[in-house]
Amino acid sequence: MYDLCISNGLCFINNEFIEANIGIEGNRIAYVGKEDVKGEFEIDAGGKLVMPGLFNAHTHLAMTLLRGYVEDMPLMDWLSRVWQVEAKLSEEDVYWGSMLGILEMIKSGTTAFADMYFHMDEVAKAVGETGIRAVLSYGMIESGDDEKGEKELKIGTEFVKDWDGAFNGRIKAIFGPHAPYTCSPEFLLKVKERAEELDTLIHIHVAETRQEFEDIKKRYGKTPVRLLDDIGFLSKRVIVAHGVWVEDDEISILKERGVSVVHNPASNLKLAAGIARVTDMLNAGVNVCLGTDGAASNNTYNLFEEIKLASLLQKVATGRADALKASDVLTMATRNGYRAYGLNGGKIEEGMLADIIMLDAKRCNYVPSYNPLYSVVYASYGCEVTHVIVDGELILEDGMVLTMDEEKVIDKAEKLKDKFLVA
Question: Any idea which positions bind substrate (predicted)?
Fold first, then answer.
């Protein structure tokens, strides 16, 4: 008798959908196979596709409140406007913005996410209340100011110590220096040393735009990746967001150092940042996962959009229709995200974290289905998600979120809009 069991579904196992039953004990998958399973709680997944939960590997969650606020601008101009309005965000604002983002992610099949922002205690509280899994970091900007750097590192360190392992391990707290153009090499080395002391990870923006690429070269005489490598910053502890502007030898550096890269296709397109060399990185053995970035530059946290975009962009960029196959991009959105952040999940396999989603296989956009894999990757909107299980707990049932008051969250977030309106 398992704590929870899933029967009669088509399960995504070893890159294909096959009939299987799943038994869950505690927060782990305890059984996957053809035998009948019984549980304290049972889900009949007949007519459903069962797959690992999606991992959104790069977000700024509370930016839901700035969704649609600044549009049609390149990154640096966009950032200037965004940073001005972000200064108005209170702790309570970040809480409700995070709740709204989590609501959107749960309803579209995301079971875990990695966030970098400020007022991160409020994000952690939202994670605890809603049942989702998260890797959280306080976004540090030091700007070459030693005094500011000390304050930022103190806040980041206290956050890691306060929240790492919280809520039965659903929160993993790490460090989040913003980028090489907002943090000096000296500060980044202090972050690296602190991460090693606390045995945790580092989430950082790198080589997002050509302007950043050129500005770093002008300032330091080196490209962003080479700069970070030359100062000894890069290692398997580091997760790089974007990595759009990287050269051949830099891809080799990322592989050799064990760095993971988060591809954010919609945000990169919207801010005209470019198309990351995902196929080249995967072929070189780099662990590449998927993220949405913040809702102010996307404008959704729907990872199914990123799945389709990621595959299509590599086909166009390389001129090869098989450049990024359906099974590969789905692995990027699931297993690779969990792997990047050192979590044993993202696969339907015994011993893995019980983070699982189910999709309605009878949706009109999935019919006819010659291969469910292609339906999921190329025809999903996100609304097909019917059930979400995180850490062995059911948090979405028949499309209804069980851990939050959806109407209250939407109402609170909508009312906050007035705070940011300008004359």
Answer: 86, 178, 208, 293
**Identity of residue 279:** T
75 and 271 Cβ atoms separated by less than 8 Å: yes
Cβ–Cβ < 8 Å for 399, 385:
yes
Residue 82: predicted pLDDT: 84
Cβ–Cβ under 8 Å, residues 109 and 360: no
Instruction: State both tokens at 207.
Output: 């080589």
96-122: buried (b, 16+ CB within 10 Å) or exposed (e) per residue? Answer: bbbbbbbbbbbbbbbbbbbbbbbbbbb
Q: Determine how β-strand 260-263 pairs with β-strand 16-25.
A: unpaired
* pLDDT < 50: residue spans in the chain: 423
pLDDT at 163: 98
Give the model's pLDDT for residue 422.
Answer: 58
Question: Class assignment of domain 54-340?
Answer: alpha beta
What is the phi-psi region of residue 344: left when phi exceeds 0, alpha when psi lies from -120 to 50, beta otherwise?
A: beta
- Annotated binding-site residues for Zn(2+) read 58, 60, 205, 293
Task: Please state, in angstroms and rounded to a whole number, the distance separating the CA atoms of residues 85 and 43.
Answer: 45
Residue pLDDT, tens place only, 76-97: 788 788 888 888 899 999 999 9
Delimit the domains of the chain by residue range.
Answer: 2-52+352-401, 54-340
Q: For the domain bounded by 2-52+352-401, which CATH number is listed?
A: 2.30.40.10
Q: How many residues does the chain have?
A: 423
Please enumerate in sequence order all residues whose Cβ is within 8 A of that of 149, keeping only pairs 6 or more positions apart, or say none.
140, 142, 183, 184, 187, 190
Q: Which residues contact 417 (CB under 8 A, 6 or more apart)?
A: 65
Residue type (1 letter), 51? M
- Encoded amino acid at 166, one letter: A
Binding residues: 58, 60, 86, 178, 205, 208, 293
